[in-house]
Amino acid sequence: MEFEISYSLDNEQQFWDELEEIVSANCKTHELIDNTLRAYLSFTTNYKDEYLQSEYAIARCSYKLLESAVFNAHQDYVRRQIIYGLLQEDTTATLHLIVAFLLFDGRQHEETFEMMSTEGGFSRLLELVQAKQDGDTALHRMLLELLYEMSRIQRLGTEDLVLIEDEFIIYLLQVIESLSDDVNDPYHYPVIRVLLVLNEQYMVSAHDPGPSQTHRPLPNKVMKVLCESGSIYKTFGENIILVLNRESETSLQLLILKLLYLLFTTSATYEYFYTNDLHVLVDVMIRNLLDLPLTSSALRHTYLRVLYPLLAHTQLRNPECHYKREELLKLLYMMTGSSGAGMMHFGGVDETTKRLVSRCVQVPWLRDAEEQQEKELSKKFLGIGINARAGESSLSVMEVASHKEKPGVQTPSRGRDEGNVAAMKDSGIAIRDTIDHGLGNGVSLGNDRDGNGLGELKSPFEVEGEA
C-alpha cells in the first residue's frame, strides 16, 4: 500500500477517535478524497487484527465512512474508487474492509451494485470467492454475500454469465457437502443463496433473452451439474427445503421455487431428493399455501406451478411413496373457493388459480379409484371438468422465471393475524410437527417463521388417524 502514516495507539478508543478524524477530513478535490480513502484503508488494515476482529467492529468501521461528510458529499466518486480497490487489491485485510463497505452501502443503495456490475465487479468476485477459499473465513463469507446481493437486484449480462464455469458450481456444492454435519458452519446459507440466484439468472436469460442477446441461450450451469452429479450433492437439496420452511422473505422463497420447478420438470432430476425430503416439502407447501393471504395471488400461483410437477414427476407418483393425498385434495378444493371453508379461507378465486388447481387435481394418484366420481367432484368444486390431456402449461416456466419481488419484502402471513387463527383451525389438514427432523443431514438455517416450528401453525382440516 503506497499511502502510509505512522500511528501510536494505546487503546481501542484511540483507534476509533483516530478513525473519526481521518474520515472527517475536509475534501474539496478528488486528490484530497483519494488521500482520505487511502488513509482510511491503510489505518484500518494496519489495526485490523488488533481492533477489528468481530463482525460488529467491521460493520462499525464501514459505517464510519458511510456516514462521513466526504462520502455524503461525493458518493459516486467514493464508491467508484472503492470498487477500483476491489478490482486491484490482493491484501486479505484490505479486501475485507473494501468488501464490507460495498456490501453495507449496496444494501442501502442499489446503485452501488449496479456500478459494480458496470465496472466488472462480477468477474472479480467469482475470482476472489475461489481464490480466498482457504483464507479468512469471515472475508470468504462476505464475498459470497456480496456476490449474492449484487446478482439478485439486477440482471447479469451474458458477458458475466459466460464466465461461470462448471468448476465454480461444483466448488460451491462441495462446500455444502464437506461441512454438512457442522451445525456451526458459516457457509451453508451464503453458498445456497449464491446457487439459487445464479439459477434465476440463467432462467431469465433463457426465457427473456433481451435485445442484445442474439445467440442461443446459455446452458444453466447449476442445473447442468445437478443433472450430471446430483446424487453426490444431496445436502444442497435438503437445505433448500429447510430454508423454504423457515424463510419469510418473498424474494428468497421465489428463488427456491424457481429451482424446484426446474428440478421437477427436468427428467434427469425428477428423483434428486430423498423421498422423506419430498414428504417434508409437501408439508411445507401445504402450510405455506394455507398461510398466504388473499393479496398474495402471484406467489400462490408460483407454489401451485411447482406443486404439480412435484406430485406428478417425482417418486411421489409411485404407490409406496404417496403422501397426504386426502389433505392435498381438500386443500386444492378449498382453494377454488367453491366450498364453505374455501370461501371463508381464500375468498374470491381468480381464473389462474382455478386453472392451476385443475392441473394439480389431475395428477393420477390424487384421483379416486372411481374416475367418474372424481369428475363429478371436480365439476362441483371447481366449476370445470377434467381434461385428461391437460398438463404443464407451456407458459408456466416463463411465469415462474419472471416472477420477482424486491429484496427484503416479507411474505404476508395469515398466522400473524390473530383474526385468521379461528378460520384456519376450522379446516384442519394435518402437517408434520417436526419438519427439521424429517430432513436428512440438513443443517438448521435461519429462523423459523415468527420463531415457531412448523407444527405451531396447524392446517385447516384434521384427517383422523393420520400423523
Could you characterize what this model shows?
The protein has 467 residues and is mainly alpha-helical. Helices cover 61% and strands 0% of the residues. It has 25 helices and no strands. Helix 9 (121-131) packs antiparallel against helix 10 (137-152) and helix 19 packs antiparallel against helix 21. The longest helix is centred in the middle third of the chain and has 20 residues, at 188-207. The radius of gyration is 25 Å and the shape is elongated. The protein starts with 11 loop residues before the first helix and ends in a 29-residue tail after the last helix.
Structural class: mainly alpha
**SSE succession:** HHHHHHHHHHHHHHHHHHHHHHHHH
Topology, number of strands: 0
- Please give the alpha-carbon distance between the first and last residues: 64 Å
* Fraction of residues in helix: 55-70%
| Shape, per Cα inertia axes | elongated
Uncertain regions spanning at least 5 consecutive residues: 340-344, 383-391, 417-426, 441-467
Mean pLDDT across all amino acids? 80
Helix count? 25
Major β-sheet, in short?
none
